[in-house]
Each structure stands twice: as structure tokens, then as C-alpha cells.
Amino acid sequence: MSDVPPEGPDIDRNVAVNLRQFREQRGVSQDELAQRMSERGFGFTQATIWKIERGQRPVKISEAVALGKALGLSSWTHLTEEPALTRRLSDLQDANRRANEAYTETKAAAARFFEAQVNVVVAVREAQDAGLDTERWNGWVNIPAERAVIEARVEWNREDDILERREKEVEAVLAALRQHGYPLIQPEDVEFGGGRP
Hints:
Helix content: 55-70%
Low-confidence stretches: 1-6
Number of helices: 7
Largest sheet: none
Shape: elongated
């Protein structure tokens, strides 16, 4: 007789718990996961996923590999690991995914702000050429997009005197950027003709 306990039941239990955890964390319904599996050549239905998650149906290795891919896991073996570890891994992956999404959104917002600044410069110059007083309309031109990120960081570390502190910290960071030659957009950097600097 062997003293090694059988791993089958534990792995089946882990797969059941982890499949549900990864699926819910990614916002995938049982129906949607079954559809993804069907697209991979497995005849899964919502009931199949339900039975697996309830521990009523074991998963073949080929199915585990496909389930891992259908859920975007870095390795299908994450389905077989201890649920407590998998929960931490799932949280880590989710936090990294959200950070990546926020970073991408921040870059896109900065690009929109740069474009908006160029539009302000063009509109101000055209209004000046038409003889309008534009002094109150060009305030956004002198504000670097980096300021929004710095302000968000300062506000995230809230204190009682946030407005005064924020202004001082933002100006200190911007001054340091300028001192080290970091190129902050200026109105004179905008060339006319194509509408972009």
C-alpha cells in the first residue's frame, strides 16, 4: 500500500472552485464560457459549466487547457492549484489588468488634451487675427497635461490644506521637469497648417 494520498479528488475540487473564481472575476457568464468552449471544439453548454463548478463533472486535461485559454489564464494549471493561492493569483492578475487599463486610459486622455490644446491655440490665433481680445481664452494653453497626473497623485494623498499643498507640489514638480529639460508643450511650439504640433 502507498502512503501517498490520491490527488484526483483534490484536483477535481480545485478545478471546480477555481473555474468559478476565474470566470466570475473576469465577468464571464456560464453561458459565455460554454460558448467559448464550443468555439474551441468542445460541446459545452451552460449546464456543463454548472456541473463542473459544482464538482459533479470532472474535467479532462484537454478541456482544462481549453478552459484556461477561454478565460485568458497564463497557464491552464492555475485551475488545478489550491484555491487560496489561486484567489491571490486572480487578485494579482485583476489588479494588474486594472492598472494597465487605467494607464492606457490616462495616455489616451493626455493625447486628447494635447489635441485640445492645439485646437485652443489655433482658435485663439484665428480669433486674434479677426481682431478679438483672446486673453481670457488661452488659459489651457499653458497647462501641461502632466499637471493632471500630478494633481491626481497629490489629491490621492489628501491632507487638510490640500489646495495650497497641491499647488506648491505641482509647481515644484513642473519646475523640476523644466529644469531638467523635459519638453512641456508651449504655445510657440505649435505650427500652423496641419493643425498639430
